[in-house]
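Record filed below.
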Amino acid sequence: MNKIEHIGIAVKDLDKSNKLFASLFGEAHYKIEEVASEGVKTSFFKSGPNKIELLEATKTDSPIAKFIDKKGEGIHHIAFAVDNIEMEITRLKQEGFTVLNETPKKGADNKLVAFLHPKTTNGVLIELCQEIPSNFK
């Protein structure tokens, strides 16, 4: 794992949260994107070299909606940048981690993503992120 790619925060109201985080960081978000397959709308902020991803559910049965129902708004996941997501999935499985999706999927911000189950990471949902290669289908 190269670095923390971003921290994901589950929110109930993306517009309201965008205003709050714009006040916090002193500048507006740089991107809003919907990932229909995950039932989520995202907004990205930069703070120095760091990124924050706000996540609002677009479906009542989406993972973010379920998270907010169970735990309320707050930190949802920590994402780490990797060079080769498939190799990292294999390595982490060999180390005993439970991978939630063994085949990487397209996520927000031009990334391939995979998640590790929080039961094997001290209660923290971990996301692996790799830039989508130009030859990705």
Helices lie at 14-25, 63-71, 85-94. The two ends are 24 Å apart (CA to CA).
